């Protein structure tokens, strides 16, 4: 199973990027997907997540109103639309999948990186001021 992430790059503050994560080689879509990020010298942190059908979404406070997570199960792809980017959004962004998180799982479970069982290799997002 591969979990490549695409769409990172260099953008000016206030700009937008859309990250995508395709779970190739994975059968079915009964898994939650989360996006995490890790800035230089910092720990990996939760950004956003969605349940298997996209009906439930969760965001960290710092990205609410700016980032939107969505998924297209026909393509086994999850997206992270990032608008109004700020220099503090600069990080390597990782997508991850979880088979244990459900529609009824609370936000605090979605933010826990230990509940994800497969991680992608990450894509770098750099926001210049």
Low confidence ranges: none
Number of strands: 11
Which range does the strand content fall in?
Answer: 35-45%
Q: Please work out how many helical segments DSSP would assign.
A: 1
Mean pLDDT: 93
Termini separation comes to: 37 Å
Rg for CA atoms = 14 Å
Anisotropy-based shape = globular
Protein architecture, described:
- This protein has one helix and eleven strands; from the N terminus they run βββββββββαββ.
- The protein is mainly β.
- The strands form two sheets. Strands 2, 4, 5, 6, 9, 10 and 11 form a seven-stranded mixed β-sheet that branches. The protein has a four-stranded antiparallel β-sheet with strand order 1-3-8-7, with no helix packed on it.
- The chain is globular, with a radius of gyration of 14 Å.
- The model has no long low-confidence stretch (mean pLDDT 93).
Q: What labels describe this entry?
A:
single chain; 129 residues; seven-stranded mixed β-sheet; four-stranded antiparallel β-sheet; 1 helix; 11 strands; 3% helix
Give a summary of the structure in a few sentences.
The chain has one helix at 107-110, and strands spanning 5-6, 9-12, 17-22, 32-38, 45-50, 57-59, 67-72, 77-82, 91-98, 118-119, 123-128.
């Amino acid at each position: 199973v591969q979990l490549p992430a695409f769409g990172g790059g260099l953008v000016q503050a206030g700009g937008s990027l859309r990250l995508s994560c395709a779970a190739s080689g994975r059968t079915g879509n009964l898994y939650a997907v989360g996006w995490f990020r890790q800035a230089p010298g910092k720990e990996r942190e939760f950004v956003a997540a969605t349940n298997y059908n996209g009906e439930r979404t969760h965001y960290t406070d710092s990205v609410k109103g700016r980032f939107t997570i969505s998924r297209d199960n026909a393509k086994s792809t999850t997206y992270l639309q990032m608008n109004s980017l700020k220099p503090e959004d600069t990080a390597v962004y990782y997508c991850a999948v979880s088979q244990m998180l459900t529609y009824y799982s609370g936000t605090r479970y979605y933010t826990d990186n230990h509940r994800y069982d497969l991680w992608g290799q990450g894509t770098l997002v750099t926001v210049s001021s």
